[in-house]
Amino acid sequence: MILLDKPLGLSSNHALQRVRRAFDARKAGHTGSLDPLATGLLPICLGEATKLSSYLLESDKHYRVTARLGYETTTGDAEGEMSRASDVDMPTGVALDTLLAGFVGPQQQIPPMYSALKVDGKPLYEYAREGQTIERAPRPITVHSVELVEAGDGRLTLDVAVSSGTYVRTLVEDIARAWGGCAHVAALRRTRVGPLGFERPMIDLEQIESAANEDPARLGNWLQPISSLIADWPRVRLDSEQTEAVLHGQRLRGDWEAGDTLVRLESDDGLLLGLGRCEIEGELRPKRLFARPQP
């Protein structure tokens, strides 16, 4: 896995393909796309790690977002045309802190028209480009935190932690509307995805491609172990007999906690075997296994 610092103006898929070519990997996948106008952490899984990429789509995300105040746009960011304006001043001090705190917690959010969600097999953004507005049902999200970084000169910068499926563009609009104003995203940078982004540094795409052309041996310095993708998942350590059974796809019964929980399966020497699910009936079912144990 590579912790790519996606550059501005590049789609997530374009960035993914360039990393895949640099590493000469047959398989590659990412753990949740970023808009072209967003930068920051785009974890890219290579080879066996792609077996985990879909599970990381549901991870919480952390962003630093800068909103430009005064008007909304058709896309919710700087790429769109002005759609609504307001000259209502942003609150300050305790009033602003109180307003922001009101957005923390579980809530319902209506997805924006400029999104990849599909209706009748067609992405919403295609309807939007045709001038159509489709009714969208609100979806449950959770905003874990909203922290003020800077405010003034017609801009508002926040650090936010949100659940998967949260549209930061919509969150910014809703925050401004709460004081009767308007805003859109001027800059967005993702800083964390699940357990990733705490300690390990992100790598620039230019660094990767330069190393691939000039010194391919350097590429290995930036590879992260598969286990770091699920570092915060509950672990189930198996003895040699259980490991053999799991690797043959067999379900196990044991004294681990019953529930409906995804866990990381490890051998008795600490190697990662893959993913399993502890089911309500108390069985442990292999879910996604690697071709060989991973460190």
Report the principal-axis shape.
Answer: globular
Low-confidence stretches: none
Question: In this structure, how is the largest beta sheet organized?
Answer: 9 strands, mixed
The tally of beta strands, per DSSP, is 18
Calculate Rg over CA atoms: 22 Å
CATH superfamily of the largest domain: Pseudouridine synthase
Query: Strand content of the residues, in percent?
Result: 35-45%
Record keyword descriptors for this entry:
single chain, five-stranded mixed β-sheet, alpha+beta, Archaeosine Trna-guanine Transglycosylase, Chain: A, domain 4, Pseudouridine synthase, TruB_C, 21% helix, 295 residues
Short description:
This protein has helices at residues 12-23, 50-56, 93-101, 124-129, 168-178, 205-214, 240-247, and strands at 2-6, 28-30, 38-46, 61-69, 71-73, 82-85, 105-109, 118-119, 122-123, 139-152, 155-162, 183-193, 203-204, 235-237, 252-253, 261-266, 272-278, 283-294.
